[in-house]
Every structure is written in structure tokens, then in C-alpha cells.
Amino acid sequence: MDCGPTCLQMIAEYYGQYYSLQTLREKSYLTRNGSSLKGISSAAKSIGFKTESVWMNWEQLIQNTHLPCIIHWDNNHFIVVYSIKSENKILVADPAFGKLTYNKDDFLKHWITDKKNNVGIVFQLKPTSKFYENKPDTRKDFPFKRLFKYLKPHKKYLCFLMTALTIGCFLNLSLPFLTQAIVDIGITTQENSIILIICIAQLMLIAGQLGNELFQSWLMLHMTQRISITFISDFLNKLMKLPIAFFDTKLTGDIMQRISDNNKIQKFLTSTLISSVFSFVTFTVFSIVIGRYSLKIFLFFLIGSSIYVIWILSFLKKCRVLNFREFREASSNQSNLVQLVTSMQEIKLNNCERGKRWEWENIQFKLYQINIKSLVIAQLQGAGGAFINQIKNVIISYLAATSVVKGEMTLGMMIAIQYVLGQLNTPLNQFLNFIKESQEAKISLERINEIYDKPDEEPVGVSKITNIPSCSNIIFQNVTFCYGNPEAEKALKNINLIIEAGKVTAIVGTSGSGKTTLLKLLLGFYHPTSGIVCIGEKSLTDYSEKYWRRCCGVVMQEGFIFSDSIAKNIGIIDEELDYDRLHYAARLANIDSFINSLPLGYETKIGSEGCGLSNGQKQRILIARAIYKNPNYIFLDEATNSLDTTNETIIMENLQKFYSGRTVVIVAHRLSTVRNADKIIVLHHGEIVEVGTHETLISHQGVYYQLIENQLELNKNV
């Protein structure tokens, strides 16, 4: 999703200027579908690049392209081409996998979009003087402070844990000396009593180690759970403070992945980091012990360990690329399986079982290929590492044995060294694991910080009006709005409108005319690109969004039913339900008889984990939810489009009484829903084309008349 801004960031850095991904994302106007060339071009121009997007063939790419450039990859991705040294050496930077080298055939397979003309898309960028005059972003230090603040409340437990780790380190340190004592003192002097005493001491140390490890585990569990809850709770709290516009540009999977990133960071903070500190101390202490026994053995140990570390780390990049590919295919596999299960009715209706199964098998084949490559790399890494380790241990054993023969050390010292070598393998592996997990934690933390760096819907310290007028006109003054890029097609154009207080205003128009967009502006989900929306004499932006929505009863097209009881779904705003108001709302929404027919009545669980409801029943519960709030302002977006005629008639009659003294805005297609409105607004391609009552608009025989005529046989029913 962020491949476009990432490519632009890489090219900006190539020319010596740094811009954060957050800045470039905002300038690129990302949508749920990710980046677009138009958005990337807009961002590039804003920071001082001259841009050009062209179709090219291979020869033109080699001869005429200004490098580095951005190219469209696999029809759904963007990468940077840095250099083309030969037909077999094309250096690219992929936002997902890093720097890679392709040969001509592989490159063309991914790049060529138009197979017929054998051309692909190239996006060229050249810096202008403005690029160097602009002030770039300041690089942020790695945000450790945000992590460590979660450890501060647990200082006491951290002190206990570090004490336990230190005790454990000294207990481990004592064992090789006791082993040496058994051989050098007990066996040499042939004193059974000394051997017995040393063995008892060893047993006591082992028991102490066991108790210490249990204590450490308990502390870690206690601290981990608390930090985990706080960590994710803070993240969810931040998410809920973000404006709706953020969620409209993010896929659910992307947000869920960032929540999973919290778990990775929490694990790194509470497990990997602390264990690595202990491992570092253990490694240092045992290295000193080996150095005390023999400096020659210690130096060889360091050389062997360094070679082992270099060997393991040399595979990190390949593993990272394969992990990215596996993650992408695994996501496709999960989505495909969900689609297979949920769309079985359509699959059977269209007899496409074989094709859908082949789609799934194709994903499995790709996963199989990735897993085979991962297995080969893991085996090579593991076998090579084990071989290096064994050679190191054998040579150290040889050096120790020859030292015993020469009388430079005792047999007990040699056995102690062997014990220490065995103990050193664990901290060494933990160190390597720390490097891997720290990389993952850094990536996860960067992704999470993208959320924390976004401004809240109501920023802290900004004072907004919380006293919402109960009965005021809503006024649109020259309002123009477009989603994202200001250069994109406008969803609303020059809207001048007065929604009168205490009256019912209906908004009609064809699909895509801007009806729902206008409603979202009313609710403060978005702000106008130009113009102003006022409640009375004050701009809507002057009022607290939270308090404004508290005064609004809203039914949106995509209204959500929670996995909870019917009562809590209707009275969602209250912790303690007002059952009189609850039953009143259900009666007006004509859902009370259905609820009472259920065995558990209002306590029946509904939603994804409960009783299944028809679309009409869901809409009636959503209408009841809006009524329960007893709002001063009511906004309904196609609130009855799933209802049968009988239910709709009853509900509309009930609502007419409820509307009294309230400001109501209805977005609808059905004649029965809008004909009694005090004012009808007709939108067409984002513009107001007609305003009036049902009768006056019919008599004009304009756009509204055509809408009604398309819906009904006008001469018979109007």
C-alpha cells in the first residue's frame, strides 16, 4: 500500500533530501487501493520534482530514461530502477524486498503491462531548484522513549528480575568451579567426603537455579501481561481518536497487522530484550572465566564465535525477502479460503468449483516453492553454523588437552572449560535471535508510530464548543469537496444550502451524485475542501465532534450490528439501559413484536456471533438505535431500503410523529420516504440542480420528475 511514497522517499534521498513516509503519504493522497501515479506525481511536484509518466519499450528504457525512475511492477506495485548496467544486471529497489538485481527476461516479465505493444509504464523524476530550496523533514531518532515508558511503572518488578538474573548468573558461574574441584581435589586426593560435599553443593546450586528460574518466569508472566494490556489499550485508544478519514483509506487487514505489531514489540520489550541483557552478562562473565584459564583458548573462542555469527547473519537478507513473500502469499491464501467458504452459494450457482479450487492450488504451489527455498536456506544456515561450532569446540578441546599434557592446566580445568563452552552456546544464539527480533521490532515500531504521529480528530489543548444548539439551521456556504487529492474529481461542487431547524429535508439523486458525501460532511467525518458548513452562526469545525455526534441520531447505509444482545445494540450509548426508552424505540422501529417473539427477548445475542438477522431486521434495529438517543438532529442514509412496503409504511408513520421539533435530513431513493419532506434537495454529479417540495418539483418535470418516473409508472401512481 505504501510502495509509491516509499519509492519517492528513496529517490528524494538519492538526491540528498530526506522526507518522512508520513509526509509523502499525506501528499500522495493514499486510498484503500494504495498509491496511484497521479498521487505520486502530486507528491513529487510538491517537494520540487519535475515529473513525466510515459509508456516505454525496453530499448527506450535503456536509451531515454533519466535514472533513477519509478516503474509500475506486476500491475499492482511500484519499484525504483537505479541502474541498467547490462541486459543481465538491472539494479532495482523494491519497497517490500530491498535492493535486488534482475536479468532482462525476469525484469520484462514483471514490468511489461501492455503485452500487445510490449511496453510498460515509466515515471521519471528530475529535481528542480525548488527541490533544493525546500526545507526537508528532520530525521527522527529511533523512538526508544515510547517503549521504555511502559517499563517505568514496573520498576519494582524489573529490580526483582535483574536481581534474579544476577543470582542466576552467579549460580551458573559456580558450577564449572565445582566440577573442577571434584576432579582436581576430590579425585586427586581420593577423599570421598570431599566429593560428597561438592556433589551436595552442586545439587543445592541446581535446586537454587530451578527456584530462581521459576521466580523469573512468574515475574516475566506478571509483567508481560500488564505491559501487553497497556500497550494494546493505548494503541486502540489512539485509533479511536483518529478521524473517520483515516479508516476510509486503510484496509482492515492493515490495521489488524499493526495491532499484531504491538504483540511483537511487547514480546521484544519484555522477553527478548531482558533475556539478551542477561545473555550478554553471562557471555561476558564466562568469557572472562575462559580467559582466566587460558588466554590462547579465549582468543580462539572469540575468532570461532565471530565466524559463526558472520555466517548466520549472512543469511538474514535472504530470509527477510522470503519472509515478505511468504507473508504476502499467506495473506492471499487466508483471503482465498475465506472467499471460498463465504461464496459457496455463488460458486455452486455458476458451476465454477474447479476454477476456484485451481486458484487455491496455485497459491499453495507458490507457498510450496517459498517453503522449499526457506528450508534449503535454513538447512544451509544450520548445517554451516553447526559445522563451524563443532570445529571450534574440537580445536578448543585439542588446545585444552595439549595444555593438560604440557602441565599448563589441570584435568579439572579442562572439564570446566568444556562445561563453559556448552553454556556459551545459549547466549550466543540468543544474541543472534536478538538481532533478528530487533529488526522486526524496529519495523513494527515504525508502523505503529505512523499511527501515533497522526493528529487526533480533536487535538489535545484545542478548545472546542461543547454546548450544541438544540435547534439551529445548518448552512452550507460555497462548499466544494473532493476525497484526497484536490486535483481529483470533486464529489460536491459549490453547495449553497440551508437545512432549516425543526424541518424535514430530503436529499435525492442518482447513485454517485454526492448524497452520502454531503451527509458525512454534516457529521464532521470530513471537512470541506473549500467553503464552510455552519450550525447557526458558528462553523461546524468550531464544535466538538464528539458532542455534536452525541446530539445526532444517525442511520448509515453500512450501519453495524455488534455481537451483543439486542438491548445493548439499541442502547449502545448507555452503560445502564433505560428500558422505557428502549421499548419506545423498538415500537417506533416496528421491531418490538419480533424481539418479543424470541425466547430471550431483548437479551437475545445478535451479530456475527449470535442470532442471524435479515437486512430488514438489521435496519429496524439501527433505526431503533437512532431513536433511543433521543437526538435533536436526525440523519438517515437509505435507512429503509431493505424494508418491505408494510414495515416501511408503519415506520415512516411512526417517525413522522418523532420528527416533531427535530431537524431531520433524509437521503433516500424511495418516493414514500421523501414525498412528505418539507424540502427536497436534488443532487446531480455533485451539484444542487433542484430545490422544492414534492409537488413543485413534479410540476417542473425536471431531474426529480425523471427520478420518480424511473421508479414508478408516474401516470398511475403519482
Automatic annotation (TrEMBL):
The chain crosses the membrane at residues 157-182, 194-215, 268-291, 297-316. Residues 160-440 form the ABC transmembrane type-1 domain. Keywords: ATP-binding, Cell membrane, Hydrolase, Membrane, Nucleotide-binding, Transmembrane, Transmembrane helix, Transport. GO terms for molecular function: ABC-type oligopeptide transporter activity; ATP binding; ATP hydrolysis activity; peptidase activity. InterPro entries: AAA+_ATPase, ABC1_TM_dom, ABC1_TM_sf, ABC_transporter-like_ATP-bd, P-loop_NTPase, Peptidase_C39, Type_1_exporter. It comes from Phocaeicola vulgatus. Residues 1-118 form the Peptidase C39 domain. It comes from the Bacteria. It is found in: Cell membrane. Pfam families: ABC_membrane (PF00664), ABC_tran (PF00005), Peptidase_C39 (PF03412). Residues 474-710 form the ABC transporter domain. This is Putative hemolysin secretion transport system ATP-binding protein. The lineage of its organism: Bacteria, Pseudomonadati, Bacteroidota, Bacteroidia, Bacteroidales. GO terms for biological process: proteolysis. It is a multi-pass membrane protein. One of its GO terms (cellular component) is plasma membrane.
